[in-house]
Amino acid sequence: MTAIVLACVSAFLFGAMSVGLRIGLGRYPDAELATVATIVGALGVVLVAAAVEAPFRGVHLSAAWPFLLAGLLQPGVGQLFVTKAIELAGASRSSVVFGIAPLISVTIALVVLGEPASAPLIVGAVLIVGGGVELARERARPEHVRRFGLVLAFVATALFATRDNLLRHLSQGTSV
After folding, report:
1. The pTM is what?
2. pLDDT tens-digit profile of 75-89?
3. Which of 16, 68, 132, 159 could connect to 74 by a Cys-Cys bridge, CB 3.0–4.6 Å?
């Protein structure tokens, strides 16, 4: 039950981030600066947390560096794609594209990591694809929505999925 509640809170906060970022870009339209501010703030929090927590868990930098590299994918470089996607396509449409991350994650897990397929997994993937198809079929797209923003949202989503699978793979057999 705790995992479901945390997942729902995470989804809510992710959606709120998209809306908050869009509002912020409306006031200060420098997407690159917004990205740097987001990443620097997040990096600061992570470094403080790591400095406080690592000694208690016996974690050493030699074991943690692959996780740092994964973090450079997303939110690192990928955050620029997220910010530009929201700037060009809007928060709602970008968030729909971000929502296909589980489909990409499942595809990577099945194809690259050799995980077994199951009926619920396939049904969920089909439903996610259906949502993406409906977004792509939208004919009356508002003037402010740029297709290139949707492409950037897809790139960011692929980075999310890659990072998630990479972290899952790296976390097997480590105390990090």
Report:
1. 0.72
2. 778 888 988 888 888
3. 159
